[in-house]
Every structure is written in C-alpha cells, then in structure tokens.
Amino acid sequence: MSEFHDDYPSYEHMAHHSEEEGKKTRKTLWRVFWYMLAITIFELVIGSMAPAQGWSGTLGLKVLFIGLTILKAGFIVMAFMHLGHEVKFFKYVVLAPYLIFMSYTIFIVLDEGIYSGDPENRTKVDPILIKQQEDLRAGHGAHHAGGEATPAHGTEHSAEEALH
Amino acid sequence: MSHSTEIDSKQAWDGGQSPFRVSYGKMMMWFFLISDALTFGGLLTSYGFIRHKYADVWPKAENVFTHFPFVEQHLPLAYVGLMTFILIMSSVTMVLAVEAGHRNDKKKVIVWMFWTIVGGATFVGSQAWEWYHFIVGTETGALRHVWSQELHTYVEETVYGANMTVNEYGVPQFANYFFFITGFHGFHVFSGVMINLIIFLNVLKGTYEKRGHYEMIEKVGLYWHFVDLVWVFVFTFFYLL
Description:
The complex is a heterodimer of chains A (164) and B (241).
Chain A: H1 11-14, H2 19-53, H3 59-80, H4 88-112, H5 127-138, H6 159-163
Chain B: H1 24-53, H2 61-64, H3 78-102, H4 106-136, E1 142-148, E2 153-159, H5 172-205, H6 207-211, H7 215-240
Antiparallel strand pairs in B: 1-2
C-alpha cells in the first residue's frame, strides 16, 4: 500500500474475525432471514384473506402491515447492515437525521393534507371510472378490473360536462 | 470485533482516531444512503397523499397484479411475493459474502457474490415482466372517456392496460406512482447489480486479497441491503395496503 504511514488505526483491517466468530455470525444471519421470511409469508396470507374476511382497508390491518414493515426494516438495518454493532454515537448520526426529517415530512403531509379527503378539492375523475371502482368494491367483476366494463349507464351528465 | 482497539470515551474526540470506529469509505456510504432514503421517503409520502386524495377510485393491488408465469389462473400477489423472497434471499447471500470477506475466504466470497448477482438480475427481470403485464393490461380492457383530437371532445373508448394518461384498472395516478417509484427502485437494483458485478470481477482478479481486506464487499453490501430495505416499504405500500 502507500509508503506514507501514519499512526491512524486502519479500520478496514479491524473488521477481520476468526472462524468461530464467523460461525456465530452466520447463525444469527440465517435466523434473521427465517424471521423475515416468516413475516413476509404471514403478510401475504393475511393480505390474501383480507378481501373475503372484510378486513381490507381497516385501520387494524394498516397498522399491522406498517408495524411489520418497520420490524423488517429494523432487521435489515440492524443485522444485515450491521448498524446494531456500530459505536452508539454512529448509530445516532445515521438514524437521528433520517427519523427527524421523515417524522416532519409525514407530519406536514398529515397536517396540511387534511383538505385532500374532500372530492371537491381534486381534478374531476372520469365518471365511468368511478362506476367501475364502485362495482369492483361491491364485488362484481372481481379479479378482472376491466371485466364487464359497464356501458356508461352511470353517467348522468355528458362526458364533456363531466370532465371540464 | 476482536482485533479492534477499545476507545476510551473520554479520548474518543481527541484526534488520532475515528470516534465512530468506521473507515471513511463506509461512513460516506452510510451518508449517501441516508440521502437516498430521504428521496424514497419523500416519494412514498407523496404517494400516500395522492392515494388518500383518490381513495375511492384507487385500484386494489390484488385486482391488478394477478399474473404468474406459466400459470393460466389468476394468482393475486403470488408473483410479487416471490420477487420479495428473491430480493431478501439475495440480501442474505450478500451478507454471507461480507462475512466470508471478514475471514479472508476468497472462495466463499466468490460463491456468495455470484448468487447475489443472480438474485438481483432475477429481480430486475421479474419487475420488467410485471411492468409488461401492467402496460398491456387485460383482454377485455375498460371503458374510459378519452380526448379525441378530431372531434375536439371526449369520446367513450375501450382502453387496455396502463400508461401515464389512462389506466384500465383505476385512476391514472396509480400508474404514475407505480411507474415512478418501482422504476426508481428498479433502477437502483440495476445499478446495484452492475456495481456488484464490478466488485465480483475484482474479487476474481484478487484485488482485495492483495489489499489484505475485503471492506469493498462490505460497502457494496450496504448499498445492496438498502435496495432490499426500500423494497420492503414499496411492497407494503403498493401491494399489501
């Protein structure tokens, strides 16, 4: 390497470990993998059961999915990305700015986006599309979004009127 | 780590050493990932806002992504579940390559890096396949009001699949966000595969063996896990909720 040596410790060389330590690390990593696989399968099972059970869009389901996602994210960052084993101060340097900025972003969207729930405050949506989604939600033509594309009997106004 | 010298917290900031006990390159990779994570965070937050705005006409993922290769039946979300599995799996092979690098085990690094690249390439291919089916759409299509250039008015027309202006499954905004966010993520995966490939070739050449450490594997590993991390969120917000 370079002929200019200094007293600084070389952190690249510090990261070596022995065979036994390696065995232990691998065991932990595989365990984390099985946890993540189990969570993903659980999510998919719940997700596919949801429409029939009437859970779709319920607050409980949303909280469950987002909670499990954050749990998985924690596994990736702490175990796979090794942040859990870094110096405490470095952990904060990485996580604190991100969490502060994201909490602020989410707060500002929730706070300032209150008006967005009102259909008056948005671009007009094609009435055929509204009818299609209503039918889908009522359980007709599931699986096929296009399905029996209802010939515009939902439109009281003319198309032009509706879209302008 | 066994060989690391313990730092007295009182002297940590006195100079002559990194108070974080990480190398420059690894720290900078973390800082880059924070900024990239903020970009994805912003995109997903804005997705949430628009989705809330069009909640009543937002398509459900289980009605949109129903295809599975070589299978005629509709299997909602099965394929994306498989894609998620592939990406998590490639994250595991990556971290095993990092672990092998810590033991200077060149052979194992080669094996695990190889499988990571295979997993990443499979994921990008799967995403292309998913996009293809989303763009082509169903055989029946759906009726929409489409602007006619000749008549200067809206006419009813059957549309197939999704693009930036019409979407047979629901509001066009769904397709816009789907293309943008999964596209941005897919591009990250593609870059990751390319970077992994370059590092893989360096491992084969023995660059890191000569250097005495495999820290480069750790740095690209951080990027690769980040790609997996973003996918975990995209998967939840686009497909599960």
